[in-house]
Specification:
single chain; 206 residues; alpha+beta; Outer Surface Protein A, domain 3; ten-stranded antiparallel β-sheet; 27% strand; binds calcium ion
């Protein structure tokens, strides 16, 4: 490296300067300094392998993330499109997905009243619970506990929303072999169909 003509005596004591720079930018840096300072590239190297790998890995994850996001958004749009089409065709009902897509509400077109809400909290495209409403009050609840598409439990409520009856299919044959209900005076009874023929052979108070 030369200091120029102003202090020629210093030329002897100025030592070469070693500059380490990323190979990607080395050529442009070299062109920049070569005009003023005699320079040479003595060695080149690439970025450490792990760094390059990490960059590729990050890029891969970024692209994969974007792809998944795109697919999910497409599915959501399809779901909204589908339900909008269904709403426009349906005679009595209007359908509406919740923002996070885990709840489908149905409204009566004429009165605007809420008719039912179906829940798919685990996003497996099966409603595990259906609530039926009348005049703003939940009157019935259907529950598919094992998510096989059949409701094992049906609950009935009074006008104040209190549970008055619970029908249960305890062995998955679609017969409700247990009915628990509560009278207005608070007494509780249980109907039992132990031989699974669909007719209750026993009533017991609880
Ligand atoms: Ca579900
Ligand atoms: Ca079920
Ligand atoms: Ca029976």
């Amino acid at each position: 490296m030369e200091t120029g003509g102003l202090f020629p005596s210093l030329e002897a004591i100025v030592k070469p300067v070693k500059v380490i720079i990323d190979e990607v930018h080395s050529r442009s840096f070299f062109r920049l300094v070569e005009k003023d300072i005699p320079s040479e590239i003595v060695a080149t190297t690439t970025l450490p392998e792990y760094s390059s790998h990490r960059k590729k890995s990050f890029r891969g994850w970024y692209i994969a993330g974007l792809s998944v996001f795109g697919i999910v958004m497409s599915l959501l749009c399809l779901r909204y499109y589908d339900i909008t089409q269904k709403s426009s065709r349906d005679k009595n009902f209007r359908y509406e997905w919740s923002v996070n897509n885990d709840k489908l509400s149905v409204y009566h077109k004429q009165t605007g009243e809420l008719v039912s809400i179906s829940y798919d909290k685990n996003y497996d495209y099966n409603f595990e619970k259906l609530e039926v409403y009348f005049q703003g009050v939940r009157m019935e609840e259907f529950i598919d506990e094992n998510e096989d598409g059949w409701f094992e439990v049906i609950k009935l409520f009074d006008k104040k929303g209190n549970l008055v009856s619970k029908n249960s299919d305890t062995n998955g044959d679609s017969l409700h072999d247990r009915i628990e209900f509560t009278l207005e005076n608070g007494e509780k009874y249980l109907f039992v169909d132990n031989n699974q023929n669909g007719i209750y052979e026993r009533i017991q108070s609880k």
